[in-house]
Design a protein that fits this description.
Layout lengths: L2 E5 L8 H14 L4 E5 L5 H4 L11 H5 L10 E3 L5 E4 L8 H5 L8 H6 L8 E5 L6 H9 L2 E7 L8 H13 L6 E8 L6 H14 L12 H5 L7 H4 L4 H29 L1
Parallel strand pairs: 1-5, 1-6, 2-4, 2-5, 6-7
Antiparallel strand pairs: 3-4
Helix pairs in contact: 1-11
The structure holds adenosine-5'-triphosphate and magnesium ion (MG).
Length: about 270
């Protein structure tokens, strides 16, 4: 069974894309067949791997009324274990294109079904909103991962995300689980980071990953070189932290499966 992990937080600039790219690369590095899907019209995850000129078909063609098969959009990266389903600006039109269509929230779920056999993990990067793109991601997913920036007002707004998560769990996708919350852009020298870490831990408790992603300039630089942190600066703190996060993610996903099998067997 493929784990499909949506990376979401409607707050902008909290490290969703940085997490989606580098977590996907770190999971691929652990030998899992991984697909990164870019559902953000800003296409930052896509630009981190390709020049937009190379992107002839995108997730817009898959989710929109062209109904292009997912397999025709997926592109290989330098890492044979990691493929990408590209985003592009046209995705911003999807809200209008899908308006009033009864299957609007299910487009990604339906499109993914035929390719799931080829992947162990699918990571979905989403835009900073709770619109139709993020809803499609959550309806198609098995897990939600929430990056929260270690900054004041970081938790504000997560209520809306959690409410959307609960509503999607109630009806279209009861199998959706909260995989975890990861603190990003952490700066151990500042009180702001320490204070918010304490607040986030108080609110999210066990759900919080042990790994924190620190502020690290290498993480900012690597997309410009079309590399993930694992190849750009393999010894940097960013690379080490995203590998640790990947280990925690695999543990949580694969552990929950073992537990479910044990329950089923009992
Ligand atoms: N740990 C980090 N250390 C240093 N810079 C970071 C780190 N994480 C993210 N950044 C930088 O912060 C900015 C915002 O990060 P990112 O694009 O990942 O956030 P986002 O949540 O995807 O944003 P958006 O909501 O616009 O999609 C980017 O310039 C990115 O390079
Ligand atoms: Mg982003």
């Amino acid at each position: 069974m493929t784990a499909i992990i949506t990376v979401a937080n409607q707050k902008g600039g909290v490290g969703k894309t940085t997490t989606a790219i580098n977590l996907a690369a770190a999971i691929a590095n652990k030998g899992r067949r991984t697909l990164l899907i870019d559902l953000d019209p800003q296409a930052n995850s896509t630009i981190a791997f390709f020049n937009m000129g190379e992107v002839t078909a995108s997730m817009f063609d898959v989710l929109g009324d062209a109904h292009l098969p997912m397999a025709e959009v997926i592109k290989p990266t330098k890492d044979p274990m990691l493929n990408v389903g590209s985003g592009r600006l046209a995705l911003a039109k999807l809200e209008t294109v899908l308006a009033g269509q009864f299957d609007a929230p299910y487009r990604l779920k339906d499109a993914l079904a035929p390719v799931l056999k080829d992947y162990d993990y699918v990571i979905v990067d989403t835009p900073p909103s709770l619109g139709i793109l993020t809803v499609n991601a959550l309806v198609a997913s098995t897990h939600l991962l929430v990056p929260i920036q270690a900054a004041y007002f970081a938790i504000e707004g997560t209520d809306d995300l959690l409410e959307t998560y609960e509503r999607i769990r109630a009806r279209p996708n009861p199998q959706l689980k909260m995989l975890g919350v990861v603190i990003t852009l952490y700066d151990k020298r500042t009180n702001i980071s320490k204070d918010t870490h304490g607040q986030i831990r108080a609110v999210f408790g066990e759900v919080l990953f042990k790994t924190k992603i620190g502020k690290n300039v290498r993480l900012e630089e690597s997309p410009a070189y079309k590399e993930t942190i694992l190849t750009f600066a393999p010894k940097s703190p960013g690379a080490v932290e995203y590998k640790k996060l990947a280990a925690e993610v695999l543990h949580r996903v694969e552990e929950s499966r073992v537990a479910r099998h044990a329950e089923d067997a009992a």
